[in-house]
Write a structure and sequence with these properties.
The complex is a heterodimer of chains A (about 325) and B (about 120).
Chain A (H helix, E strand, L loop, with lengths): L12 H17 L6 E5 L5 E5 L1 H29 L11 H21 L12 H21 L15 H12 L3 E8 L2 H24 L2 H16 L4 E6 L2 E6 L4 E7 L3 E8 L2 H5 L3 E4 L4 E4 L4 E7 L4 E5 L3 H18 L1
Parallel strand pairs in A: 9-11
Antiparallel strand pairs in A: 1-2, 3-4, 4-5, 5-6, 7-10, 8-9, 10-11
Helix pairs in contact in A: 1-2, 1-3, 1-4, 2-3, 3-4, 5-9, 6-7
Chain B lengths: L1 E4 L7 H15 L11 H8 L3 H13 L3 E2 L7 E2 L9 H22 L3 H13 L1
Helix pairs in contact in B: 1-3, 2-3
The chains are: A alpha+beta (about 325), B mainly alpha (about 120).
Protein backbone atom coordinates (compact mmCIF):
# COMPACT_ATOMS: atom_id res chain seq x y z
CA UNK A 1 0.00 0.00 0.00
CA UNK A 2 1.47 3.31 -1.11
CA UNK A 3 -0.29 5.46 1.46
CA UNK A 4 -0.42 4.09 4.98
CA UNK A 5 -3.01 5.51 7.35
CA UNK A 6 -1.67 6.91 10.60
CA UNK A 7 -5.01 6.88 12.37
CA UNK A 8 -7.40 3.89 12.52
CA UNK A 9 -10.58 4.07 10.43
CA UNK A 10 -12.73 2.96 13.40
CA UNK A 11 -12.31 6.41 14.95
CA UNK A 12 -15.05 7.41 12.50
CA UNK A 13 -17.31 4.45 13.42
CA UNK A 14 -19.92 6.66 15.23
CA UNK A 15 -20.25 8.92 12.17
CA UNK A 16 -20.42 5.92 9.85
CA UNK A 17 -23.08 4.26 12.05
CA UNK A 18 -25.21 7.44 12.04
CA UNK A 19 -24.75 7.70 8.28
CA UNK A 20 -25.89 4.08 7.88
CA UNK A 21 -28.97 4.84 10.01
CA UNK A 22 -29.80 7.78 7.74
CA UNK A 23 -29.45 5.61 4.63
CA UNK A 24 -31.78 2.98 6.14
CA UNK A 25 -34.33 5.68 7.00
CA UNK A 26 -34.04 6.99 3.43
CA UNK A 27 -34.64 3.50 1.96
CA UNK A 28 -37.74 3.09 4.14
CA UNK A 29 -39.08 6.42 2.95
CA UNK A 30 -38.82 5.44 -0.74
CA UNK A 31 -40.36 6.19 -3.15
CA UNK A 32 -39.91 9.86 -2.32
CA UNK A 33 -42.72 12.23 -3.42
CA UNK A 34 -42.26 14.26 -6.61
CA UNK A 35 -42.27 17.50 -4.60
CA UNK A 36 -40.68 17.80 -1.19
CA UNK A 37 -40.88 20.80 1.14
CA UNK A 38 -37.24 21.87 1.50
CA UNK A 39 -37.54 25.10 3.50
CA UNK A 40 -40.13 26.41 5.95
CA UNK A 41 -40.96 30.01 6.76
CA UNK A 42 -41.40 31.49 10.23
CA UNK A 43 -45.12 30.68 10.08
CA UNK A 44 -44.31 27.00 9.57
CA UNK A 45 -45.43 26.81 5.95
CA UNK A 46 -43.11 25.51 3.24
CA UNK A 47 -41.52 28.40 1.32
CA UNK A 48 -39.59 26.26 -1.15
CA UNK A 49 -40.29 22.89 -2.67
CA UNK A 50 -37.66 20.66 -4.17
CA UNK A 51 -37.15 17.53 -6.22
CA UNK A 52 -36.20 14.16 -4.62
CA UNK A 53 -32.58 14.55 -5.80
CA UNK A 54 -32.19 17.53 -3.47
CA UNK A 55 -33.13 15.31 -0.54
CA UNK A 56 -30.69 12.67 -1.77
CA UNK A 57 -27.99 15.35 -1.85
CA UNK A 58 -28.63 16.26 1.78
CA UNK A 59 -29.00 12.70 3.05
CA UNK A 60 -26.32 10.94 0.97
CA UNK A 61 -23.68 13.38 -0.32
CA UNK A 62 -23.38 16.01 2.45
CA UNK A 63 -22.66 13.42 5.21
CA UNK A 64 -20.02 11.85 2.98
CA UNK A 65 -18.31 15.23 2.62
CA UNK A 66 -18.45 15.68 6.42
CA UNK A 67 -16.95 12.21 6.97
CA UNK A 68 -14.19 12.97 4.41
CA UNK A 69 -13.39 16.23 6.21
CA UNK A 70 -13.30 14.44 9.58
CA UNK A 71 -11.09 11.76 8.05
CA UNK A 72 -8.67 14.36 6.66
CA UNK A 73 -8.56 16.21 10.00
CA UNK A 74 -7.93 12.96 11.94
CA UNK A 75 -5.17 11.90 9.56
CA UNK A 76 -3.50 15.34 9.64
CA UNK A 77 -3.58 15.31 13.43
CA UNK A 78 -2.10 11.80 13.61
CA UNK A 79 0.68 12.75 11.18
CA UNK A 80 1.62 15.84 13.16
CA UNK A 81 1.28 14.70 16.76
CA UNK A 82 4.40 13.97 18.77
CA UNK A 83 2.69 12.40 21.77
CA UNK A 84 -0.55 10.64 22.68
CA UNK A 85 -2.63 13.82 22.76
CA UNK A 86 -6.42 13.78 22.62
CA UNK A 87 -7.74 15.02 19.30
CA UNK A 88 -10.90 17.11 19.87
CA UNK A 89 -11.52 17.14 16.10
CA UNK A 90 -12.23 13.39 16.31
CA UNK A 91 -15.69 14.41 17.57
CA UNK A 92 -16.39 16.67 14.58
CA UNK A 93 -17.96 14.20 12.12
CA UNK A 94 -19.91 12.33 14.83
CA UNK A 95 -21.49 15.57 16.12
CA UNK A 96 -22.30 17.10 12.71
CA UNK A 97 -23.71 13.90 11.25
CA UNK A 98 -25.53 13.31 14.56
CA UNK A 99 -27.20 16.72 14.10
CA UNK A 100 -28.14 15.96 10.48
CA UNK A 101 -29.39 12.48 11.38
CA UNK A 102 -31.25 13.79 14.44
CA UNK A 103 -33.14 16.24 12.24
CA UNK A 104 -33.58 14.15 9.11
CA UNK A 105 -34.46 10.69 10.45
CA UNK A 106 -37.73 11.91 12.07
CA UNK A 107 -38.44 13.87 8.88
CA UNK A 108 -37.89 10.76 6.74
CA UNK A 109 -40.10 8.83 9.20
CA UNK A 110 -42.98 11.20 8.37
CA UNK A 111 -42.41 10.65 4.65
CA UNK A 112 -42.24 6.87 5.18
CA UNK A 113 -45.77 6.99 6.60
CA UNK A 114 -46.92 8.42 3.29
CA UNK A 115 -47.67 11.88 4.66
CA UNK A 116 -46.80 15.05 2.83
CA UNK A 117 -46.21 17.77 5.44
CA UNK A 118 -47.98 21.01 4.65
CA UNK A 119 -46.63 22.61 7.80
CA UNK A 120 -43.31 22.30 9.59
CA UNK A 121 -43.42 19.10 11.63
CA UNK A 122 -42.73 19.32 15.38
CA UNK A 123 -39.06 20.11 15.84
CA UNK A 124 -37.35 16.83 16.84
CA UNK A 125 -35.46 18.17 19.86
CA UNK A 126 -35.01 14.80 21.48
CA UNK A 127 -33.30 13.05 18.56
CA UNK A 128 -31.44 16.26 17.66
CA UNK A 129 -29.82 16.22 21.09
CA UNK A 130 -29.60 12.48 21.65
CA UNK A 131 -27.86 11.43 18.42
CA UNK A 132 -25.00 14.01 18.45
CA UNK A 133 -24.43 13.45 22.18
CA UNK A 134 -24.37 9.67 21.79
CA UNK A 135 -22.08 9.96 18.75
CA UNK A 136 -19.76 12.33 20.60
CA UNK A 137 -19.63 10.07 23.68
CA UNK A 138 -18.63 7.02 21.62
CA UNK A 139 -16.14 9.15 19.64
CA UNK A 140 -14.49 10.28 22.92
CA UNK A 141 -14.10 6.65 24.04
CA UNK A 142 -12.68 5.58 20.66
CA UNK A 143 -10.31 8.55 20.52
CA UNK A 144 -8.98 7.60 23.97
CA UNK A 145 -8.40 4.05 22.68
CA UNK A 146 -6.58 5.26 19.57
CA UNK A 147 -3.03 3.91 19.51
CA UNK A 148 -0.19 6.33 18.98
CA UNK A 149 3.04 5.44 17.21
CA UNK A 150 6.01 7.80 17.28
CA UNK A 151 6.84 9.22 13.83
CA UNK A 152 9.39 7.11 11.98
CA UNK A 153 10.69 9.70 9.51
CA UNK A 154 13.84 11.56 10.49
CA UNK A 155 13.82 15.34 10.58
CA UNK A 156 16.27 16.69 7.99
CA UNK A 157 18.51 19.09 9.88
CA UNK A 158 20.51 21.39 7.61
CA UNK A 159 24.19 21.97 8.25
CA UNK A 160 24.51 25.74 8.53
CA UNK A 161 27.81 26.45 10.24
CA UNK A 162 29.14 27.86 6.94
CA UNK A 163 26.20 30.26 6.72
CA UNK A 164 26.74 31.58 10.26
CA UNK A 165 30.43 32.14 9.55
CA UNK A 166 29.65 33.76 6.22
CA UNK A 167 27.09 36.17 7.66
CA UNK A 168 29.37 37.08 10.57
CA UNK A 169 32.23 37.74 8.12
CA UNK A 170 30.02 39.88 5.88
CA UNK A 171 28.78 41.94 8.82
CA UNK A 172 32.32 42.47 10.10
CA UNK A 173 33.43 43.51 6.62
CA UNK A 174 30.74 46.19 6.68
CA UNK A 175 28.77 44.68 3.78
CA UNK A 176 25.11 45.38 3.31
CA UNK A 177 23.35 42.01 3.41
CA UNK A 178 19.90 40.49 3.57
CA UNK A 179 18.64 37.00 4.30
CA UNK A 180 15.23 36.35 2.75
CA UNK A 181 12.80 33.47 2.49
CA UNK A 182 9.14 32.93 1.67
CA UNK A 183 6.26 30.57 2.31
CA UNK A 184 3.74 30.80 -0.48
CA UNK A 185 2.16 27.38 -1.14
CA UNK A 186 -0.36 27.04 -4.01
CA UNK A 187 -3.31 26.53 -1.64
CA UNK A 188 -2.90 30.12 -0.39
CA UNK A 189 -3.29 31.49 -3.93
CA UNK A 190 -6.29 29.21 -4.53
CA UNK A 191 -7.93 30.33 -1.28
CA UNK A 192 -7.23 34.00 -1.97
CA UNK A 193 -8.70 33.90 -5.47
CA UNK A 194 -11.58 31.58 -4.49
CA UNK A 195 -12.68 33.60 -1.44
CA UNK A 196 -12.25 36.98 -3.13
CA UNK A 197 -14.21 35.81 -6.19
CA UNK A 198 -17.06 34.63 -3.95
CA UNK A 199 -17.00 37.94 -2.09
CA UNK A 200 -17.01 39.94 -5.35
CA UNK A 201 -19.98 37.91 -6.62
CA UNK A 202 -21.72 38.34 -3.26
CA UNK A 203 -21.11 42.09 -3.37
CA UNK A 204 -22.64 42.26 -6.85
CA UNK A 205 -25.78 40.44 -5.67
CA UNK A 206 -26.02 42.59 -2.53
CA UNK A 207 -25.64 45.72 -4.70
CA UNK A 208 -28.51 44.55 -6.92
CA UNK A 209 -30.88 43.21 -4.26
CA UNK A 210 -30.05 44.73 -0.85
CA UNK A 211 -28.09 47.94 -0.37
CA UNK A 212 -25.02 49.49 -2.03
CA UNK A 213 -23.43 50.36 1.33
CA UNK A 214 -23.25 46.74 2.44
CA UNK A 215 -21.94 45.82 -1.03
CA UNK A 216 -19.14 48.38 -0.64
CA UNK A 217 -18.15 46.77 2.67
CA UNK A 218 -18.13 43.31 1.11
CA UNK A 219 -16.07 44.69 -1.79
CA UNK A 220 -13.57 46.10 0.68
CA UNK A 221 -13.34 42.68 2.34
CA UNK A 222 -12.78 41.07 -1.08
CA UNK A 223 -10.03 43.57 -1.88
CA UNK A 224 -8.37 42.88 1.46
CA UNK A 225 -8.43 39.10 0.85
CA UNK A 226 -6.96 39.68 -2.61
CA UNK A 227 -4.10 41.66 -1.10
CA UNK A 228 -3.07 38.55 0.87
CA UNK A 229 -1.91 36.98 -2.42
CA UNK A 230 1.82 36.34 -2.20
CA UNK A 231 2.16 34.47 1.07
CA UNK A 232 4.50 35.24 3.95
CA UNK A 233 8.02 36.61 3.52
CA UNK A 234 10.70 36.82 6.17
CA UNK A 235 13.71 39.08 5.87
CA UNK A 236 16.66 39.51 8.19
CA UNK A 237 19.03 42.41 7.74
CA UNK A 238 21.82 43.79 9.88
CA UNK A 239 19.52 45.25 12.52
CA UNK A 240 16.02 44.13 11.66
CA UNK A 241 13.78 41.10 11.35
CA UNK A 242 10.57 41.55 9.36
CA UNK A 243 7.65 39.29 8.47
CA UNK A 244 5.40 40.55 5.68
CA UNK A 245 2.19 39.30 4.13
CA UNK A 246 0.69 39.57 0.67
CA UNK A 247 1.37 41.52 -2.48
CA UNK A 248 1.61 44.87 -0.69
CA UNK A 249 3.87 43.51 2.02
CA UNK A 250 1.54 44.12 4.97
CA UNK A 251 3.88 44.10 7.95
CA UNK A 252 3.07 41.34 10.45
CA UNK A 253 6.20 41.65 12.54
CA UNK A 254 8.99 44.21 12.67
CA UNK A 255 11.53 43.50 15.34
CA UNK A 256 14.93 45.11 15.88
CA UNK A 257 17.41 42.30 16.51
CA UNK A 258 18.43 43.97 19.76
CA UNK A 259 14.95 43.08 21.09
CA UNK A 260 15.51 39.36 20.55
CA UNK A 261 16.49 37.55 23.72
CA UNK A 262 16.31 33.92 22.58
CA UNK A 263 16.12 32.30 19.18
CA UNK A 264 15.81 28.57 18.50
CA UNK A 265 14.59 26.11 15.88
CA UNK A 266 11.18 24.87 16.95
CA UNK A 267 9.14 21.86 15.84
CA UNK A 268 5.41 22.18 16.35
CA UNK A 269 2.11 20.63 15.43
CA UNK A 270 0.01 23.10 13.39
CA UNK A 271 -3.34 21.50 14.28
CA UNK A 272 -2.70 20.59 17.90
CA UNK A 273 -0.73 23.70 18.88
CA UNK A 274 -2.46 26.37 16.81
CA UNK A 275 -5.56 24.78 15.31
CA UNK A 276 -4.45 25.18 11.69
CA UNK A 277 -2.26 27.25 9.41
CA UNK A 278 -1.86 30.96 8.74
CA UNK A 279 -1.52 33.79 11.26
CA UNK A 280 -2.19 32.09 14.57
CA UNK A 281 -2.15 32.83 18.26
CA UNK A 282 -2.09 30.49 21.22
CA UNK A 283 -1.48 31.07 24.91
CA UNK A 284 2.28 31.12 24.53
CA UNK A 285 2.99 32.81 21.23
CA UNK A 286 1.92 34.39 17.98
CA UNK A 287 2.75 32.32 14.91
CA UNK A 288 3.10 32.95 11.16
CA UNK A 289 3.28 29.93 8.84
CA UNK A 290 1.58 28.51 5.77
CA UNK A 291 3.14 25.06 5.61
CA UNK A 292 5.36 22.59 7.41
CA UNK A 293 5.76 21.95 11.10
CA UNK A 294 9.10 23.61 11.74
CA UNK A 295 10.15 27.17 12.27
CA UNK A 296 12.09 29.57 14.44
CA UNK A 297 10.85 30.60 17.87
CA UNK A 298 11.82 34.04 19.12
CA UNK A 299 11.52 35.36 22.63
CA UNK A 300 11.90 39.08 23.26
CA UNK A 301 13.38 40.69 26.35
CA UNK A 302 9.81 41.53 27.38
CA UNK A 303 8.91 37.81 27.33
CA UNK A 304 6.77 37.89 24.16
CA UNK A 305 7.14 34.86 21.93
CA UNK A 306 6.79 34.54 18.17
CA UNK A 307 6.99 31.55 15.87
CA UNK A 308 8.02 32.08 12.25
CA UNK A 309 7.39 29.06 10.04
CA UNK A 310 10.23 28.26 7.70
CA UNK A 311 11.26 25.74 5.05
CA UNK A 312 14.88 26.21 6.18
CA UNK A 313 14.60 26.89 9.94
CA UNK A 314 18.27 26.17 10.62
CA UNK A 315 19.32 28.75 8.04
CA UNK A 316 16.87 31.38 9.33
CA UNK A 317 17.94 30.71 12.91
CA UNK A 318 21.62 30.92 11.92
CA UNK A 319 21.03 34.25 10.14
CA UNK A 320 19.30 35.79 13.18
CA UNK A 321 21.82 34.34 15.62
CA UNK A 322 24.83 35.53 13.61
CA UNK A 323 23.40 39.01 13.13
CA UNK A 324 22.57 39.28 16.85
CA UNK A 325 25.96 37.98 17.98
CA UNK A 326 27.96 40.34 15.78
CA UNK A 327 25.63 43.23 16.60
CA UNK A 328 26.13 42.65 20.34
CA UNK A 329 29.89 42.33 19.91
CA UNK A 330 30.05 45.57 17.93
CA UNK A 331 27.91 47.47 20.44
CA UNK B 1 18.52 33.36 0.17
CA UNK B 2 21.49 35.39 1.36
CA UNK B 3 22.64 38.38 -0.67
CA UNK B 4 25.16 41.02 0.22
CA UNK B 5 26.72 44.01 -1.44
CA UNK B 6 30.36 44.97 -0.97
CA UNK B 7 31.41 48.48 -1.87
CA UNK B 8 35.09 47.49 -2.28
CA UNK B 9 34.16 44.89 -4.88
CA UNK B 10 35.25 46.17 -8.33
CA UNK B 11 32.23 44.49 -9.95
CA UNK B 12 29.04 46.50 -10.35
CA UNK B 13 26.42 45.87 -7.67
CA UNK B 14 24.02 44.11 -10.06
CA UNK B 15 26.81 41.69 -11.05
CA UNK B 16 27.48 40.90 -7.38
CA UNK B 17 23.82 40.04 -6.88
CA UNK B 18 23.74 37.90 -10.04
CA UNK B 19 26.87 35.99 -8.98
CA UNK B 20 25.54 35.26 -5.48
CA UNK B 21 22.10 34.12 -6.57
CA UNK B 22 23.54 31.90 -9.30
CA UNK B 23 25.98 30.39 -6.79
CA UNK B 24 23.12 29.60 -4.39
CA UNK B 25 21.19 27.92 -7.19
CA UNK B 26 24.24 25.79 -8.03
CA UNK B 27 24.83 24.89 -4.37
CA UNK B 28 21.20 23.86 -3.97
CA UNK B 29 20.26 26.53 -1.41
CA UNK B 30 17.83 27.88 -4.01
CA UNK B 31 15.84 25.21 -5.81
CA UNK B 32 13.85 25.37 -9.05
CA UNK B 33 10.50 27.00 -8.29
CA UNK B 34 11.76 28.94 -5.26
CA UNK B 35 10.61 32.53 -5.09
CA UNK B 36 12.92 35.50 -4.94
CA UNK B 37 12.07 38.77 -3.21
CA UNK B 38 10.40 41.47 -5.23
CA UNK B 39 12.67 44.13 -6.70
CA UNK B 40 11.46 46.65 -4.13
CA UNK B 41 11.90 44.31 -1.17
CA UNK B 42 15.47 43.39 -2.07
CA UNK B 43 16.39 46.98 -2.89
CA UNK B 44 14.97 48.13 0.48
CA UNK B 45 16.73 45.37 2.40
CA UNK B 46 20.12 46.08 0.80
CA UNK B 47 19.68 49.85 0.68
CA UNK B 48 20.32 50.04 -3.07
CA UNK B 49 18.50 51.43 -6.08
CA UNK B 50 15.46 49.62 -7.51
CA UNK B 51 16.96 49.70 -11.00
CA UNK B 52 20.07 47.85 -9.83
CA UNK B 53 18.02 44.90 -8.57
CA UNK B 54 15.83 45.08 -11.66
CA UNK B 55 18.88 44.88 -13.91
CA UNK B 56 20.24 41.90 -11.92
CA UNK B 57 16.92 40.06 -12.34
CA UNK B 58 16.79 40.86 -16.06
CA UNK B 59 20.33 39.56 -16.56
CA UNK B 60 19.40 36.31 -14.78
CA UNK B 61 16.24 36.04 -16.85
CA UNK B 62 18.27 36.42 -20.04
CA UNK B 63 20.66 33.73 -18.79
CA UNK B 64 17.74 31.37 -18.08
CA UNK B 65 18.29 31.35 -14.30
CA UNK B 66 15.05 33.11 -13.38
CA UNK B 67 11.53 33.25 -14.73
CA UNK B 68 9.95 36.69 -14.60
CA UNK B 69 6.25 37.17 -15.15
CA UNK B 70 4.19 40.32 -14.83
CA UNK B 71 2.56 40.61 -11.40
CA UNK B 72 4.38 37.62 -9.99
CA UNK B 73 7.56 37.24 -8.06
CA UNK B 74 10.70 36.00 -9.78
CA UNK B 75 11.19 32.23 -9.56
CA UNK B 76 14.23 30.06 -10.02
CA UNK B 77 14.05 27.90 -13.14
CA UNK B 78 15.32 24.35 -13.48
CA UNK B 79 18.75 24.22 -15.13
CA UNK B 80 18.77 22.56 -18.57
CA UNK B 81 19.89 18.92 -18.56
CA UNK B 82 21.76 19.50 -21.81
CA UNK B 83 23.00 22.90 -23.01
CA UNK B 84 21.02 24.12 -26.01
CA UNK B 85 24.27 25.00 -27.77
CA UNK B 86 26.84 22.62 -26.32
CA UNK B 87 29.80 23.88 -28.36
CA UNK B 88 28.98 27.49 -27.58
CA UNK B 89 28.56 26.77 -23.85
CA UNK B 90 31.85 24.90 -23.67
CA UNK B 91 33.64 27.65 -25.57
CA UNK B 92 32.29 30.23 -23.10
CA UNK B 93 33.42 28.16 -20.08
CA UNK B 94 36.83 27.61 -21.70
CA UNK B 95 37.21 31.35 -22.26
CA UNK B 96 36.29 32.15 -18.63
CA UNK B 97 38.68 29.47 -17.35
CA UNK B 98 41.48 30.89 -19.45
CA UNK B 99 40.84 34.36 -17.98
CA UNK B 100 40.84 32.88 -14.48
CA UNK B 101 44.03 30.93 -15.18
CA UNK B 102 45.69 34.10 -16.38
CA UNK B 103 44.66 35.89 -13.17
CA UNK B 104 45.97 32.93 -11.14
CA UNK B 105 49.28 33.08 -13.03
CA UNK B 106 49.72 36.75 -12.25
CA UNK B 107 48.82 36.15 -8.61
CA UNK B 108 51.48 33.44 -8.40
CA UNK B 109 49.08 30.49 -8.07
CA UNK B 110 50.67 27.39 -9.64
CA UNK B 111 48.76 25.17 -12.13
CA UNK B 112 48.64 22.37 -9.49
CA UNK B 113 47.22 24.71 -6.89
CA UNK B 114 44.77 26.03 -9.49
CA UNK B 115 43.64 22.45 -10.26
CA UNK B 116 43.23 21.72 -6.54
CA UNK B 117 41.16 24.87 -6.07
CA UNK B 118 38.90 23.92 -8.99
CA UNK B 119 38.40 20.41 -7.51
CA UNK B 120 37.64 21.81 -4.06
CA UNK B 121 35.15 24.28 -5.49
CA UNK B 122 33.44 21.54 -7.48
CA UNK B 123 33.04 19.41 -4.34
CA UNK B 124 31.28 22.19 -2.40
Amino acid sequence: MLWKLRHPWWIHAPALALYAAMLIALERARPLPERLPMQFGWNGEPVRWGAPWEAELVFVVVPLVIIALGFAAGESWARQQRGGRFNPMALFDAIVIGLIAGTEIPWLGILAQGEQPRFMPPWPWQTMLALPLAGAAVAVVLERLRPWHPPTEQVQVEEVSNLSTEIAARIRAGERWAYWEAQNPPYVSLLVFGVSTLLFLGAWQIWKHVTPWLAVEVLAAAAFVLLCYGGIRVSVTKHLLQVRLGMLGLRLLRMPLTDVNEVAVHTFSPLADFGGWGIRVNRQMKAFYFRGNRGVRLRTHQGKQYLIGSDHPERLCAAITAARAVGQAVS
Amino acid sequence: MLVSVREEDPRPVYAQIVAQIKAQVREGHLRPGDELPSVRELADALGINLHTVHKAYQVMRDQGVLRLRLGRRARVTAPPKQPADRQGAEALVRERLAELLTDAYHLGVSPDAFRRLVDETLKR
